[in-house]
Amino acid sequence: MPSTAEPIIQLRGATKRFLSGRGDVHVAVSDLDLSIQPGEFIAVVGPTGCGKSTTLSLVSGLEPASDGSVRVAGREVTGIPDRIGYMFQADALMPWRTVLGNVAAGLKWRGDGAEATAKALDWVARVGLKGFENYYPHQLSGGMRKRVALAQVLVTEPHILLMDEPFSALDVQTRSLMQDELLRLWQGSGTAVVFVTHDLEEAITLADRVVVMTASPARIKDIFPIPLARPRQVEELRVQPDFIELYKHIWSCLSDEVAIAREEAARVG
Ligand SMILES: Nc1ncnc2c1ncn2[C@@H]1O[C@H](COP(=O)(O)OP(=O)(O)OP(=O)(O)O)[C@@H](O)[C@H]1O
């Protein structure tokens, strides 16, 4: 659960403007205020194209804020901060490396050569892939590839893990398995997770708090604490009455924004 320590991530009035292809200024996210504690699991939901990924880019330093402040571990973000991991919808596995080689690569680049293989072996086992160390990515199922991607990022012991719809390309059952796996690996790790998803069920299942963003330009509309006990079992959780109540409550907030975004998309054509 969230502690009262210094926030690991702090957005204050964070705004991002882009120049559109036509040369107009497009406000992607506007005036975001959000503090995230070490070890906290935050899910971010909002309509398609509202600015969720841009929010992650501000935290990761991939994009500088146009206005306002973005701080990580107490420091203004001016480049990619230390101890930050990123996981996207498409995994970043190197096809020419084995499972073990992929998991060890990040540590080896950082110069931890001697320890890299030992740590990677440990993480391959922790994500349930013992025995598959010498397989190549093309020999693995989608779920197994995700496990490798998780090990690849967790082996670096990030203080912050940014996840941009990491499981959305998986079939429903594999997705649930990966959600359980992520919770098991995250629990007690001290890593703060910011998890972007279109799927409100997924958001509630995983998070300590769910942030609902407005239709573009994205602002924070509301933040909902998720007081469901941990450890959580994904499939069991979703049939519980308190889960269903939370879903209805948050959906009543989110659905207005989804409707606005649809109308806007229809208007623009
Ligand atoms: N580098 C960029 N240059 C110009 N415009 C951009 C850039 N990155 C994002 N945008 C625009 O900012 C807006 C928000 O994009 P973003 O990808 O953050 O939304 P999203 O909520 O993550 O989308 P989705 O739900 O489809 O994943 C979009 O209109 C997008 O076209």
Explain briefly what this protein structure is.
By secondary structure, this protein is an alpha/beta fold. The chain is 38% helix and 23% strand.
Structure description:
With about 270 residues, this protein is an alpha/beta fold. It has a single domain (about 40-65, about 80-269), classed as P-loop containing nucleotide triphosphate hydrolases (Rossmann fold, 3-Layer(aba) Sandwich), CATH 3.40.50. The chain has eight helices and ten strands. A six-stranded mixed β-sheet has the order 6-7-8-3-9-10, sandwiched between helices. It has a four-stranded antiparallel β-sheet with strand order 2-1-4-5, covered by helices on one side. Helix 2 runs parallel beside helix 4 (about 140-155), helix 4 packs parallel to helix 5 (about 170-185) and helix 6 (about 200-205) packs across helix 8 (about 240-269). The longest helix has 28 residues, at about 240-269. Adenosine-5'-triphosphate binds near residues 49, 50, 51 and 54. Adenosine-5'-triphosphate binds near residues 18, 26 and 49. It holds the Pfam family ABC_tran. InterPro entries: AAA+_ATPase, ABC_transporter-like_ATP-bd, ABC_transporter-like_CS, ABC_transporter_ATP-bind, P-loop_NTPase. Keywords: ATP-binding, Nucleotide-binding, Transport.
